[in-house]
User: Fold this.
Amino acid sequence: MPISGTPSRAELVDHLVRTRIAGEVATPRENNLSHYRQLANGNRHFWFGLEFGDRWTDEQDVLAVMAERVGVNDDPEYRYGQDTIDAELTVDGLERLAGRLRKAAEGRQRVLLATGHPGGLLEVHHRTAAALRAAGCEIVVIPDRLQTDEGYVMQFADVAVLEHGATLWHTHSGEPMKAILTALELEGRPLPDLVVADHGWAGYAAQHGVDAAGYADCNDPALFLAESEGTLQVAVPLDDHVVSPRYYDPMTAYLLDRAGLGERA
Assistant:
């Protein structure tokens, strides 16, 4: 089903909807609302390494931001059934991210890529890293022997990941990124100029003052709130784990093309 080459914007929008990366996504409405409520109630698992204080204590305010930036249904009385991601907003986010990648390439900046969703987004980040390196960027090599309560922080195919029991681990935590940035500082090494990630990897980096951009699902409001506040550079809305990771290939090709990086991976 993935289309070959670099799609036009219209072709990408159609592809995102057909593969359910956007449009009517698999995440149910009740799950979305539960996560918005948990964040508003101060559950830090849903803060993704960010610090919101008491700024987002009303779940209706969270819903309003998600409707605006992601395209979920804005009716607070709609509580069960299918929810949506606006594919046009996904492409808008990709184009904002492309602008930041272009800046990184032009400045030959130090870039760190990371994912808490390796089953879906690892190859997206890997291809982005390869294109940035080909353009002259330094892909940050993380320090060795880093560990959190969940597992070991490692780098696989130029992408920082969490490993647990010889398996790449799905995590929302900001602790792995905290471990990396803390270790870089202790070693006297410069922090990245840019972090491209998702989940708490992006959230903690942004909270730490590093330019960061991330992908996020419609049940993960933290990064969109951070973008609305200006803490995070870009949040791209998408379903972060669809049936096949190959479905993300046209999206990645579009991103790299708009960044002026071409298909260097």
